[in-house]
Write a structure and sequence with these properties.
This protein is an alpha/beta fold. The strands form 4 sheets. The protein has a 5-stranded parallel beta sheet with strand order 7-8-9-6-10, sandwiched between helices. Helix 1 crosses helix 3.
Length: 783
Amino acid sequence: MRFGVLGPLAVWSADGELVVVPESKVRSLLAALLTARGEVVSADRLVDELWGEASPVNPAGALQTLVSRLRRVLGQGLVVHRALGYVLDVADEAVDAGRFTALTARARTATDPRERAGLLTEALALWRGPAFADFIDEDFARAAITRLEEQRLLAIEEQAEARLELGEHGLLAGELGDLTDRHPLRERLRAAHMRALYGAGRASEALDSYQDLRRRLEEELGLEPGPELAALQREILRQDPALQAVPAPASAPRRHTNLPTPATGLIGRSDSLEEVHALIAAGRLVTLTGPGGVGKTRLAVEVASGLTGSYADGVWLVKLAAQAFSTESGAATTGDELAEVVAATLGVRDDASPGPLPGRRLRTLLDRLSDALRTQRLLLVLDNCEHVIEAAAGLAQALLRDAPGVRILATSQEPLGILGEQVCPVSPLDLPADSADQAVLRTSSAVQLFLERAVAASPGFALSDDNARAVASICRRLDGIPLALELASTRVRVLGVRELAKRLDDRFRLLTGGHRGAPARQQTLRAMIDWSWELLTAAEQAVLRRLAVHSDGCTLEAAEAVCAGAGVKPAEVLDLLTRLIDRSLVLVAHEADGTRYRLLESVSAYLLERLRETEYERVRRAHAHYYAAFAERADSFLRGADQQHWLQRLDAETANIRSALDSAAADGDGRLMRRLVHAMAWYWFLRGRLTEAKRYLTLALALQQGPPGCGEGAADSAASRVPDPSGTVAWQTGMSLLSELPSGHTSAGKPIRPSWWSRTAAASARPSSRGPGSNRRESNGYR
């Protein structure tokens, strides 16, 4: 087990998987033991720290219960009972604070400034946020938080001094400015900042910084700056040559990677990491696919970081989304344009081998790149290929053919589609179960990510019984998409999770708080989906936005009926739908009653906005008429051998049929409304949905017949067979009678015979029929 306190409290198993510690009191117990790492904490002290004045009736028993629960999570050997108390028996290296202390101690014994700076950088990278971030207001953690924060600041100061020896004055002048503002009275930090400013040619700012400190000390403490800082000011005033920046070494070792160091841990992807590692070991081209914001890049970087020692010529990340290619002017990106970006990343010169190839074809930049990499052994990470997919496929194909030591890990919203490619879909994080149990929710990787980011943005926030359902709702409604969850977590400090959950209907206005360093497409939820939308053809956009009118997905038949028209032929829908699936914008689910096509909730909300800008009314009517015809067809099978199959199909389309009913009611289309309620009445009876039946039957009776021609052209070919209102009255009367009686019986205690309802259903479909209310004996359920 490994433990993290330099940020939110975290526990990892030996293989790096995040271990869930359920219940806030159990987490508090673990935190209290970690504040006194290696020391026995008395039972009395633990009771006082965990419950304060609200001590339980049996403190010793309550504490033992918490210890037992913690042992179930960590194992029996770590929480040890000693005389009068408990101790967490773990090595210093098993706790990130212990590793931090060990690294800083090693750095202080190093004489080489480069080694010292490297060790301190490694130590500071262990910090994931404020120490004990989720216990920042707890009395038992305050001393440990203060001690660790002081150690962090000392490490920053020492790292700055080592980097000054290496001549990094320009970088430090900017990096230390904000830190100096937050800790204005730390003289060692101020001195490092002044030296950096002076070495960067900003002597006047260095002197201003000294005067700022002097003023603050005098006003707040009545003191003067220390002699070392005063001496530094005098050296700056006389421009002492010793203060000049030392040039960085001319021949630094060649880097073997340009991978960024992630600021946060990877959550919920342990299985994916293993799978991608295995795929790369087995083949030379692996493409991670998935919708925007799902975490393809983050997973690729994590995989590649674990392989830096496996490739003699390095592991290199090529960020294609950040490049300005010729697609902006309407032309297709060429292989040479992509090759130029890769060559620049790898440091490959493009002025070599300019002659023609055999056959007199001129040698392109892609040819020269392939030649340069022919003998190299490296892993190339091509990130965000979707907007240059053809050129990326050509580049990958050329390198796989001509450079046998090169392997490629690509990320894209769609596969490259070339021979030898292994596609690995990246799914959203696991969604939480419909439960308010904290232990259950913490098993969801979506909840884990949201909680970690929310705690970082709002120290003191924690999952509780009061907010558990709101957290679960946020994670489900944002589909477990990591970027959406991270954007939402930044709003917790201002809104709290319950208000945040309520406002997700307006998610595109709400989720706009991306981190400053993130690319523009990741700054807002809308920008994330815009990126994918703008890569589509007009026909693809048309089919995609029309799909959004469906509720809870649709079948291929429904998509072909509703998404065709206005530039898209029914026969073209399947190919367009396939391309949208390849681009990770439409999800496919193979269910018991057939294949369904669905949209993520955020994508659906975005597309509905697009649909309302163009053809919403036409598509909504086409949707309503298709499902009226579908319900009529289903109704004809509900009294025979295929009844169960068609009941299941109607179950799957319940949301769509309700949407069609609501559309007909909103349009005042009594003709369509009666078709729908008569087609659905027998289904409602068989499924026992009497309240729903009465509500829609009442609405149908309240509507007028509707003007001739109100149907959607051919979609309303059944308009001449619209049931008479008397049949609607019959159904409404029957449903009302049935809902008022004990389940399955009449007022006389005799069962209602389905044959009676079957005759009613048949009769109500005829314009001249008499409903069940026209015969007293039948309306009472007697034979």
